[in-house]
Amino acid sequence: MVGIDAAIANAFRRILLAEVPTMAIEKVFIATNTSIIQDEILAHRLGLIPIYADPRLFEYKQKDDEEGTSDDTLVFELKVKCTRNSKAAKDATDPDELYINHKVYSKEIKWIPMSNQGTLFEEGDIRPIHDDILIAKMRPGQEINLTMHCVKGIGKDHAKFSPVATASYRLLPDIELTEPVTGQMAQRLQKCFSPGVIEIDTVNGVCQARVANPRKDTCSREVLRHQDLKNYVKLSKIRNHFIFSVESTGAIASSLLVSEAVKVLMTKCRNMLSELDKSNDGQ
Q: In whole angstroms, what is the distance from residue 240 CA to residue 242 CA?
């Protein structure tokens, strides 16, 4: 983002963290849980599993609606029972050989279509994002049988609804060579920065350093430790050029998250202007 104030950049960061909606497991109805994990801990672990579902296709669930509808709720079930492996070797000690289904992974969570959801979505459209999230460990005779309701929400209500693992920004570094740096000093200068920041050109048979890509600089300021090099370089940052890093949980692409954050901020601005107009009309 270029040419904006730091407050606007920070507003986008906060919106990405807390106000772009996603789908997450809200209620867990446990029929059987004989594993060593308590019901509350199990429900909490399930709620933090990111769900692959487009929140734009769903409505917010009403507070007085206990059951939910196909417009605002997704239903999943988890049914796993651990048994002994009759084909395991007699001297086997590895639980992976001794037991079947002793590790419960997110791939065991199955989507149960409600009403017309089966026609609106294809198989694979609604699922946990990752299949290898470990939920629980069991031993023979132990069983987990439960149903989950997944609803739309925002990170401001609970962190499980946050669409990003992290969202941060930094200012674009500005690196200026105050004097020509040549020869061995040019090569030493290049090693003081991250790869790609400083390149060495050959000018009239002489190696000369130039700033190639300051964006790759990690701001280590290593060059300032060298007394013979620090006076050749001026380090600063461009105050209105922000480099964003948005790491999605996988439910929504990072590029789409940014556009959704822009829409949220625009809606907030329109609401603010509308309230100001009402206030002026009332005076």
A: 6
Tokens of 116: 């017309």
d(CA 128, CA 49) in angstroms, rounded, equals 7
pLDDT digits (tens, 9 = 90+) for 136-180: 999 999 999 999 999 999 999 999 999 999 999 999 999 999 999
Backbone angles phi, psi at 5, to 5 degrees: -85, 155
CA dihedral sign of residues 165, 44, 51, 56:
negative
- Return the number of other C-beta atoms located less than 10 Å from residue 218's C-beta: 11
Question: Rounded to an integer, what distance in angstroms lies between the CA atom of residue 64 and that of residue 73?
Answer: 14
The residue among 42, 60, 263, 251 whose CA lies nearest residue 165 is: 251
Q: pTM of the prediction?
A: 0.82
**The token pair that represents 66 in the structure block:** 């206990």
Q: How many Å separate Cα 98 from the centre of its chain?
A: 37
Structural contact between residues 178 and 233, judged by C-beta atoms closer than 8 angstroms: yes
